[in-house]
Specification:
heterodimer, A: about 160 residues, 7 helices, about 0% strand, globular, B: about 80 residues, mainly alpha
Chain lengths: ~160, ~80
């Protein structure tokens, strides 16, 4: 059983790696997707950021992406175990369709997060609530401190892997 | 409230309030949206932490999807206005 205090930063790193990897896998930085995401990307580029990273942040904002899937799966798992996580997966899928999202970043994020959270809470003794705090910290690192610098970093990663 | 829960709730509240303040003081509408998105994450997390019942999952997800749709609508409107 791992304590809550060391579990939260570990969970934050796991959530950050999970949703960035999935968002890049689903090619979120490639184009604006909807017109709103496009204009957010351009705005971030105008203020000194990176266009590809900006588009990725725009896509995260305008539709439930892997980060939203991770958070909502963590919430579901915390409130009602594996059943709660399943509800989250279904509702995130519905939510992505409502937001006219063509991809499956949100749904796949929720599924992967459920598997990881289930494994880590069952076998490594992580408290489930650590993933809620972890995911909030992870998205804060991407969007809350400096979206401009985050977009540059995300753009660099995208150009390396694409 | 249990101590562990207080820490998690505290993290959500501090991050949520910080991002809400940053959103208020950011002059450009489009640049407010990333901060609002983080705030929505924190609020959705807080809802479940405060009321950990199965039905709350639906409430938190409805809140989150609704706020995403709102951000989507705001940014699309700005995009349309810029086109004109």
């Amino acid at each position: 059983m791992i304590d809550l205090i060391p579990a939260i930063p570990l969970a934050a790193v796991i959530c950050l790696l999970l949703f960035t990897a999935l968002d890049i896998f689903w090619k979120l930085p490639q184009k604006g997707g909807v017109s709103g995401a496009d204009v957010i990307g351009k705005e971030l580029e105008n203020s000194g950021g990176d266009l590809n990273g900006g588009w990725m942040i725009g896509n995260i904002i305008s539709s439930p992406d892997a980060s939203a899937g991770t958070l909502l799966a963590a919430c579901g798992y915390y409130a009602w175990g594996i059943w709660g996580a399943l509800i989250s997966i279904v509702l995130v899928y519905v939510g992505a369709r409502i937001c006219a999202d063509k991809g499956f970043a949100g749904t796949s994020g929720a599924i992967c997060a459920t598997l990881i959270i289930w494994a880590l809470t069952s076998f490594a003794g992580f408290p489930p609530e650590s993933f809620i705090a972890g995911c909030v910290i992870a998205i804060f690192l991407v969007e809350g401190i400096s979206p401009k610098h985050a977009s540059r970093l995300l753009g660099k990663i995208w150009r390396k892997v694409s | 409230m249990e101590e562990g829960l207080m820490i998690v709730e505290g993290i959500c509240v501090v991050i949520g309030v910080y991002c809400a303040i940053r959103a208020v003081f950011e002059p450009k509408t489009l640049k407010k949206l990333p901060y609002l998105n983080v705030m929505n994450f924190a609020v959705a997390g807080s809802i479940v932490l405060l009321m950990p019942y199965p039905i709350t999952i639906c409430a938190a997800i409805a809140y989150f999807i609704g706020s995403t749709l709102e951000s989507n609508a705001i940014s699309s409107t700005v995009a349309q206005l810029e086109e004109k």
